[in-house]
Amino acid sequence: MLRTRVIPTLLLRGESLVKTVRFGKFTYVGDPANTVRIFNELEVDELIFLDISASKEGREPNFKVLEDIANECFMPLGYGGGISSLRHAQTILEIGFEKIAINTQSFVNKELITEIADVYGSQAVIASIDVKTGFFGKPSVRSLGGKLNKKYDPVVWAKEVESLGAGEILLTCIDREGTWNGFDLEIVKSVTEAVSIPVIAHGGAGSIEHLRQVVKKANASAVALGSMVVFQKKGMGVLVNFPDREVLEEVLS
Amino acid sequence: MIAIINYGMGNLGSMNNMFKRIGVKASIESQLGRIEQAEKLVLPGVGSFDAAMNRLNAITGLRDLLEDKVMNEKIPILGVCLGMQILTSASEEGRQPGLGWIKGEAKRFPRHDTLKVPHMGWNIASRESASLLTKNIGNESRYYFVHSYYVRVDNQSHSIMRTHYGFGFDSAIGNKNIYGVQFHPEKSHRFGMQILKNFSEI
Amino acid sequence: MIKSCTRCIYDENVSGISFDVERICCYCRQIETLSKDFKTATPDGEREFERIVDKIKRDGRNKKYDVVIGVSGGTDSSYMLHLAKEKRLRPLAVHYDNTWNTAIATQNIKKVITKLNIDLYTYVIDCHEQNQILLAFMKAGICGADAATDLALAEIMYRAANKHGIKYVFEGHSFQAEGVSPIGNSYTDGQFIKSVVKNHSKIRLSSYPNMTFFRFLRWIIFARIKKIRPLWYLKYNKDSAQKLLEKEYGWEYYGGHHLENRIASFDHSFLMPNKFNVDQRNNSLSAAVRSGFISRKKAIEEYAKEPVLEEGLLEYVKKRLQLSDQDFEDIMNGPIRTFKDYKTYKKRFERLRLLFYFLAKANLVPMSFYYKYCFPIKEQK
């Protein structure tokens, strides 16, 4: 049987690795290639890299950094950030990544999802959906690193990207990101119930118990970890790490 | 020297990287002359069955060269993921016939309530029958899978490893010098390294 | 016939060495003196350490932490954490991340501090700046290319201590386990770092936490942060320490002194032996011989073996420093220089010898600092 995937999700800002809180304040984490090397040594299941400044700055992915990352990795890799054409996707996949994550571009040109899925298969396309809860408690989808409110309901948008051909959804709750307070189970569940493709829950993981909850109660197919894998604990120093495999097996099987 | 065949399908860089990491001489080749000189071949593949067969057949002389090297010279060949599926007779995914070197067929995973398609993630492959490909491999070895179609071989003795996803399917197959793995060894850490190492020593 | 010490395995090639009438080397004598001063591995030494621990507790009473411990994931620093908790201290672990860590290092740190419930403060240098600093040292031809990391860790520990009002820093150095590092092999000071970087790179130090002379004085004279080396008082055997760490915390050994970090690993296992003909394994081996843990014969045998080099390490170094094979060759064949070729604080330390003697007596600087920095270095043959 498949073990639930636990995916360290690392944020790139230019050529550096950082970690943010609620998509805002960021802390410098270190060198991307060395960090990947460590995760490789720790034999993690999969890695996702998101360039959080590419779309905002209107630039392309940094292919050199991606090459440095890919040739350290012997596990599946996903990348998102600034992808706006099939050519970008092709270059990244040829560098050695398995999956492309599309976020901002899916609002500008949603056909891109279908285009990439048609050529490379749905399993190569992750639709990255950032969600923030508005003033009146209603969650809505954001783009451009959380800056632009698209005003879509996450469930509606999730169904849309599924129909466009995305193979998975990376669902990030902006309000929980970097807080260690646990996932937003309600939002995650509403999306997992609406689509048949796997949903990776992202934003808020602070303990193994949170992982158990989002998988068992909210039916997430996989979990993405941010702060938990780059800091010793909440509020403390940078320390690249990964939970013990046996503990994960026990909790998530 | 191991040639990783570049016919326009598949993530070749990672495969090459892993061979390099384990100290085995390998290179990505698209020229027939170079493929001709190889002592072993790796046939990658990502995408759809027909696309793969069409590409393979479209390269002048490639199909014939492969038939010669594999069926006559009997050099070892390893098909990976879609590369394994095209070693068989046919697939539900497409209309083209496969290479037919290992009799069997690829079928789509049925829609299932709890099990999503594609089969994507880490799963265990257990040894089904003895093979040079699976030397030193424990029963709890896990590999990274991502596929929507699975293979059933006609002859049970050609099944080397089995994996469970709703039901059992062949995750590695082999017939004399011809081998195939459904998972991605180049993305499966040390488990994948062991498979590639074994292949290089055949 | 190369002259070598009759007690340890240092020979006349070791920087700054001299032999007395009994053909015992000056480093063995230095350690004899230190052992006597600190009553190492005797009940008196233990009592002295207990006394220090009590003082630390008293001075840290109303603070969140009472002592800072620098950690790397290696044996000595991991053991320090264990020791501190055993003595019921409330340590703050401090880690300097030079962005070249191995997984063993970070996981070891994690395992120990999680089980002991210790907080961690980390300072991460900008990875590109670190690469340029390392490259500068390599181009300069300095033996001990990782001089910057050692100094930065010391600076970070002081900063963390100062921030939390902590007056004590534990260092895991042990002359029982590693001897005293011969001067000339690993000189480091803030002016030196700045000078090498200025002469061999285009960058200016920015995220690198440099310990300038005035910062150094600030920490030791104004903030009065004391450096304590517990392993100078207590009996310490690296093997037993490793077994204990493995058993208690699932800690893992990384194959050799400092090999938990890739810069140190590259430096000790490749750069120093191949370019400078310096193999620092003789430090820990000599120390082991002096402490009676292995025989001199065994140590010599061990030393004759090739240093362990991680698979793919050289490629990784070339990749990060963006060096072609030719560039790398050029560096390996390049000129050799020492700290004497650059601006440093050395002369200043020598002029202030008396001051540092008293500071050492007050535990504000380690006694080994006094020996190493405050005396002119004899030229090698």
Concise overview:
Chain A has 253 residues and is an alpha/beta fold.
List the helices and strands and how they pair.
The complex is a heterotrimer of chains A (253), B (202) and C (381).
Chain A: E1 5-13, E2 16-20, E3 26-30, H1 32-41, E4 47-51, H2 63-70, E5 77-80, H3 86-95, E6 99-102, H4 105-108, H5 111-120, E7 125-133, E8 139-143, E9 148-149, H6 154-164, E10 168-173, H7 185-194, E11 199-202, H8 208-216, E12 222-225, H9 227-230, H10 245-252
Parallel strand pairs in A: 1-4, 1-12, 4-5, 5-6, 6-7, 7-10, 10-11, 11-12
Antiparallel strand pairs in A: 1-2, 2-3, 7-8, 8-9
Helix pairs in contact in A: 1-2, 6-7, 8-10
Chain B: E1 2-5, H1 12-21, E2 26-29, H2 32-37, E3 40-43, H3 49-58, H4 62-72, E4 77-80, H5 82-85, E5 90-91, E6 104-108, E7 119-127, E8 142-147, E9 149-153, E10 159-164, E11 168-175, E12 178-181, H6 189-200
Parallel strand pairs in B: 1-2, 1-3, 3-4, 4-12, 5-6
Antiparallel strand pairs in B: 6-9, 7-8, 7-10, 10-11, 11-12
Chain C: H1 26-38, H2 43-59, E1 67-70, H3 75-86, E2 91-97, H4 103-116, E3 119-124, H5 127-140, H6 147-163, E4 168-170, H7 175-178, H8 190-200, H9 213-222, E5 226-228, H10 238-249, H11 262-276, H12 281-290, H13 296-304, H14 313-321, H15 325-332, H16 346-351, H17 353-361, H18 367-373
Parallel strand pairs in C: 1-2, 1-4, 2-3, 4-5
Helix pairs in contact in C: 3-4, 3-10, 5-8, 12-13
Characterize the structure shown.
The complex is a heterotrimer of chains A (253), B (202) and C (381). Chain A is an alpha/beta fold. Chain A has a single domain, classed as TIM Barrel, CATH 3.20.20.70. Chain A is built from ten helices and twelve strands. In chain A, strands 1-4-5-6-7-10-11-12 form an eight-stranded parallel barrel, surrounded by six helices. Chain A starts with a strand and ends with a helix. In chain A, 58% of the residues are buried. The model of chain A has no long low-confidence stretch (mean pLDDT 90). Chain B is an alpha/beta fold and 202 residues long. In chain B, 26% of the residues lie in helices and 30% in strands. Chain B is built from six helices and twelve strands. In chain B, strands 2-1-3-4-12-11-10-7-8 form a nine-stranded mixed beta sheet. In chain B, strands 5-6-9 form a three-stranded mixed beta sheet, with no helix packed on it. Chain B is globular. Chain B starts with a strand and ends with a helix. The model of chain B has no long low-confidence stretch (mean pLDDT 92). Chain C is of the alpha/beta class. Chain C has one domain (39-373): Rossmann fold, CATH 3.40.50. At the A-C interface, strand 3 and helix 1 of A face strand 2, helix 4, strand 3, helix 5 and helix 14 of C.
